[in-house]
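Problem 3 from the worked examples.
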Amino acid sequence: MFAINRRRSNPRWNITENLAGYMFMMPTILVLGTFVVLPILYAVFLSLQKVRLLGGIEYEFIGFRNFTRLAEDERVWIALRNTAQYVAIVVPTQTVLALILAVTLNSGIRGKNWWRILYFLPTVTSSAVLTLIFMWIYNTDGLLNDFLTFVGLPTYNWLGDPSVALKGIIIMNIWSTAPFFMVIYLAALQDIPKTLYEAAELDGANGWKQFIHITLPLLKPVTFFVVAVGVIGTFQLFDQSYIFSGGTGGPNNATLTVVLLIYQAVFRNLQMGYAAAIAFLLAAAIVAISLIQRRLFGGERI
């Protein structure tokens, strides 16, 4: 014991020990530095530049002009409004639906393993494939309008009407993403001790009171995680909007999202600096919403 303490007090031993620790950390540091830190720093650099791509890459420092341009660009505000509407509808709905499905499967219904597989299929299916299937369903003579006609409800031009185009994407994404969060809730439900429910039942609490006073409070950290992941994912909506509109964000910018606007700025308008500024606007929105969620759900206790 005395020899070990003497070695640790030796400066050479401490240097060797620290060096060994940094060597073990080096792979992680290199990966994070290469794929996280350097891209962020380069994005900061681009956001302050006017980049010319044709005839060779040239940079011209313009300061914060790209950021001031954001406030003047009407399409930025349209994209923010569409994205905010999408997030505000999809996240609460998919969270509640996922919880309902998880509670149902956890209640001991027959064939619950088959129901799990059936519910989870949309999650493991390619997003592009799902979008193409729903485009077929949303056609004016597609399955959805046929069903609405059959039950006597009005039909819509889901792909061409600006008032309903985004709603079509919302319906598709709720259906395809809720099963993923259902699995997370289901795992959390099965981790709750059954003795708590047994004690509550002895005290005369019915199923609803047990759900309100036991299940929901114990699921609070999981709900924070589900909502946080849902918000980050929905703010990054791109592929469905791109496929639905052919990359235009139409009809009449109804499906234009922030990420799609970044894509257009880079690959159509060749405005790398402006695209980086939009990306930082998106990042700021995600961070702000995440901090609000942390405050509401007590995420600091996770």
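Problem 4, a separate protein:
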Amino acid sequence: MPELPEVETYRRFIEETSLHQTIAEVEVQDPKRQLQLDLDDFRRALLRNQFTGTQRIGKQLFLLTAQGPIVTMHFGMTGDVAYYRDAADTPRFARAIFFFENGFKLAFLDSRKFGRIGLTQSVDAFRLQKKLGPDALTLSTEELTQGLAKKKSAIKPLLLDQRIAPGVGNWIADEVLFQAQLEPERPAHTLQPAEVDRLASAIREVLATAIAAEAVYRDFPSHYLIHAREWDTAPASPVKDAHLHCPRCQTPIQKKYVGGRATYFCPNCQV
């Protein structure tokens, strides 16, 4: 599933390829399933228009336009984007295509069709409607403190709450808690101010690291917990010889379910 680092990579890719080009046509393969409004209304808002910029909150991407309406993109389980010119290069799972007058095309890809495209008039209005908190990449200690205030639930599922830290997915939450040395089932209201500050810093650091690596997880630093997850057993892993042990203390990594989600942690470092 595309997480915040992937979506940020998509955002930067669109910024580099698809801005300030007049849209000549729009095609949506399955509008009833993947478009959140009538196809004619969608085309009417975008034909002869141009993308002028991008924004992102969590895993939600926004394409700003010269004439006002903002395209919203959520990538579901398998979403991606592509930019190309020749019809022969059209990706297999191109579900929506924006045709530019210069001959190039921007495609929204989605093999499983769980992604959604829509329009909004305001990013702020969309954020309020969806009850999205402040973006996790720039989340401050003060914002996190406010989001966790008086919460008695375990910290792990709270980090997955998009009202608190939009963009934190399951593996990111595990990594953040490992880097902050916090136990996943620790009740949030027991965290001390210094621990909340450490947690906020870890969220920003883990996400910035993932974005710098363009979400290629095997390129992450060797001291990251992600290399000890069960699915990361390829020889390319920097810790291939200890891929189920803590990179700090070599204690075997444990797995349990917290809030219904598979959770990896070090029982020695995250007491």
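Solution to problem 4. Residues 4 and 167 are 5 Å apart (CA to CA). The beta strands are 23-28, 51-57, 60-65, 70-74, 79-84, 94-100, 105-110, 116-120, 254-258, 261-265.
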